[in-house]
Amino acid sequence: MGRLLAWQLARAGHRVTVFEAGSADAQTSPARVAAAMLAPLAESAITEPSVVGMGRYALTRWPELIAQLSQPVFFQQEGTLILWHRQDAAEAQRFAGLLRNTNERVPGLPKLQPLDGTGVRTLEPSLENRFAQGLYLPGEGQLDNRQLLAALLHELQALKVELHWNSPRAPQDFQPGTSGQPGWVFDCRGLGAQAQWGELRGVRGEVARIHAPDVSLSRPTRLIHPRYPIYIAPKQDHLFVIGATEIESNDLSPPSVRSTLELLSAAYAVHPGFGEGRILEIATQCRPTLPDNLPAIRRLGPRTLQINGLYRHGFMISPALLDVVLELVQEQRTTLAGALDLQVEENAA
Fold first, then answer.
1. Predicted pLDDT of residue 106
2. Strands lying side by side in the sheet with 37-38
3. How far apart are CA 45 and CA 224, in angstroms?
4. Residue 346 has what pLDDT?
5. 51 neighbors 105 (Cβ within 8 angstroms)
6. Where are the beta strands (DSSP E) in the chain?
7. Distance (Å, rounded) from C-alpha 140 to C-alpha 149?
8. Residue 6 burial (C-beta neighbours within 10 Å; 0-12, 13-18, 19+)
9. What are the DSSP calls for 55-101, one per residue?
10. Which pLDDT belongs to residue 25?
11. Could you count the other beta carbons within 10 Å of the beta carbon of residue 172?
């Protein structure tokens, strides 16, 4: 969120300075670990219509933003495939009911499409006959988060943005609008803002990155699981990001054996080619989350904004938050926030 906002402000001609508690490679950011799926209908099973609407907005906005970058960023919009094993059919039926309800409540979303075994095989021939049923969610997408972070860094450097790494700051360190101070301050620190936004909490996730040359998948695939849907996001060159775990914790210790076994076993159950894949990384991070699991923008003063609470939807909704903030800066008000049902808290203490 911070890099995206700094880039767009600099591109609009503003002089921008960035203070970042971590390093340029974003090793301490959950944005580096994420799968970066843009799946508003799939995510509707666990979130509110407002987030679905922001995700739908972002599906049209991301191609515009990526087109402005000078470095390539993998982006695709081939939909989402949802699968399940026979023993999980009841949970799959419940899940499908949630998605159908979203289709009715959020106009303009592509309708989910039930698939039989032939339909699954047509979409993903490499799955052969392993699944007798599935759901296809057309229009959903994904991007490569690490390519995007690198491309945004390149743009910030090209635009001569003043970058301060390993330099944590808080909003109270600045007095925007006064002599020698910035005109605006934007706090995009995620969990780093807990001292000023006490309601923030961490939701831990564990993700495996696997290189599997024997596996071919054309789109993000989710497997209905007894504890949580597990996703497999195929990136370029047979790289796969596999994850799903959600643990209410700020713990950043290494992944548990149980979670890792569940992720890898689920991937192997989708395609046995994962058995010969190579584990490149198993990473842990905590998503910044507010009590209602919804994002929020709040004013700490006339020219100080905090943007936070993106939870597990950071890449899916960040273009919507970006455009609301840009509107607030340019026009001192926002109509887009109301259209997206995005919370903007005024004059927060």
1. 87
2. 37-38, 141-143, 75-76
3. 12
4. 82
5. no
6. 17-19, 37-38, 75-76, 80-83, 113-116, 133-137, 141-143, 162-164, 185-187, 201-211, 221-223, 230-234, 239-243, 247-248, 278-289, 296-301, 304-308, 343-345
7. 21
8. buried
9. HHHHHHHHHHHHHT-SS---EE---EEEE--GGGHHHHHHHHHHHHH
10. 95
11. 11
pLDDT in tens, 165-176: 999 999 999 999
Exposure of 300 in the CB half-sphere (CA atoms within 13 A)? 20
Q: What share of the chain is helix, strand, coil (3-state, %, to 5)?
A: 35, 25, 40
Number of CB atoms found within 10 A of residue 70's CB: 8
Instruction: Tell me how far apart the alpha carbons of residues 209 and 32 are, in angstroms, rounded to a whole number.
Output: 12
8 Å CB contact between 138 and 108: no
pTM: 0.96
Q: Which two tokens stand for residue 232?
A: 């497999």
Element at 325 (helix H, strand E): helix 314-331
Q: Angle 49-67/89-105 helices, nearest 10 degrees?
A: 80
| 304-308/296-301 β-pairing | antiparallel
Kindly report the CA angle at 21 between 172 and 14, in degrees rounded to 5? 65
Q: What is the pLDDT of residue 256?
A: 85
pLDDT value at position 349?
52
Contact 236, 217 (CB under 8 A): no
Among 209, 255, 257, which residue's Cα sits nearest to residue 234? 209
Closest CA to 199 of 293, 285, 284, 286: 293
Low-confidence ranges of the chain (pLDDT < 70): 347-349
